[in-house]
Design a protein that fits this description.
313 residues, mainly alpha, Na+/H+ antiporter like fold, 0% strand
């Protein structure tokens, strides 16, 4: 694996974040606008990014390998979710902030950063596996993630009416619906008309830039000490971005012979914290300080942590 390929991708991400910082400082981006952009990313551009990966990947892999990869990501999240409840307790995080650490621990940036990094490091053939990870990610974040943040919003703003009751309708949203369509499109090899394909590609291509703009606004509103003086986040990074991905690889290695699947899982497990919890936090009015700081710090150190994880493969 080329370490420079990963580092170059991370540098591009940070330059995009700086664009958001600059635009906010110049008054071209506002809190209102970023909240609207957050809704657009969560509900439109991010799901479509996943769909675009399905009809652009060649050559196709068979259904057996798709099933094996899907099972691997199920195992990955089955490890991450209990860990997300354990880590804040181990780190002595205040109860009011534990929701933020849970979001940071469970949801890695498998879309915005995972897709370009996997493509650059492992090649286009890895993208179907990234899509399956995205499907699992979406199923969890648009159900558990959304419900958890809504519950937190109700606790932080008891005077405001919140819809916290979970029902089956929470599963029916743009993220999960398009994720399922993505797998169907891939497995059935449906041919997308050129006009439709180009339209979806243009929409999906907006995701990384828009999400980095929104993150840039959060960066612009924070002072450096709020990011770099939180010692618990440094311990969290070592555990979540190095030790946990390596542990997941060692758990799967005796059962998985396909090295591309194993390497893809390793990269997905070592991704920095995802932007979508931040987008949702803004949308629901949840305090976003710790989530923003975690995203910034984990993205910064991923220049080192991702190559460190890949070294053990």
């Amino acid at each position: 694996m080329s370490i420079w390929v990963v580092q170059k991708q991370m540098i591009v991400i940070f330059l995009l974040i700086l664009v958001g910082v600059y635009l906010y400082k110049r008054g071209h981006l506002t809190q209102n606008l970023t909240r609207q952009l957050s809704w657009l990313i969560v509900n439109v551009t991010n799901p479509i990014t996943l769909l675009c990966a399905a009809f652009s990947v060649e050559p196709k892999v068979d259904a057996k390998h798709v099933g094996i990869a899907f099972l691997c990501f199920f195992v990955m999240y089955a490890i991450l979710i209990p860990l997300a409840y354990l880590l804040p307790v181990i780190l002595g995080v205040d109860k009011d902030s534990r929701y933020a650490y849970r979001m940071l621990a469970i949801f890695g940036n498998v879309g915005f950063i995972g897709i370009p990094v996997s493509s650059a490091v492992l090649g286009q053939e890895s993208l179907i596996y990234v899509s399956l990870c995205g499907l699992t990610f979406n199923m969890i974040i648009y159900t558990y993630g959304a419900a958890s943040l809504q519950k937190t919003a109700a606790m932080q703003h008891p005077d405001k009416k919140q819809e916290n009751d979970f029902s089956i309708k929470n599963l029916i949203n743009s993220g999960t619906v398009i994720s399922i369509i993505t797998v169907i499109v891939y497995l059935t090899d449906v041919k997308i008309p050129d006009i439709a394909g180009s339209t979806l590609t243009y929409i999906g291509n907006c995701t990384t830039f828009l999400s980095m703009l929104v993150l840039g606004v959060s960066v612009a509103q924070m002072v450096p000490r709020e990011v770099f003086t939180k010692w618990r986040l440094y311990v969290f990074v070592v555990i979540r971005q190095i030790l946990v991905p390596i542990a997941i690889v060692f758990v799967l290695r005796p059962f998985i012979t396909d090295q591309l699947i194993l390497r893809t899982v390793a990269i997905m497990a070592s991704m920095p914290a995802a932007n979508l919890p931040l987008m949702m936090a803004k949308q629901f009015g949840v305090n976003e300080e710790v989530i923003s700081a975690g995203i910034i710090l984990t993205t910064l150190v991923s220049i080192v942590t991702i190559p460190a994880v890949m070294f053990f493969l």
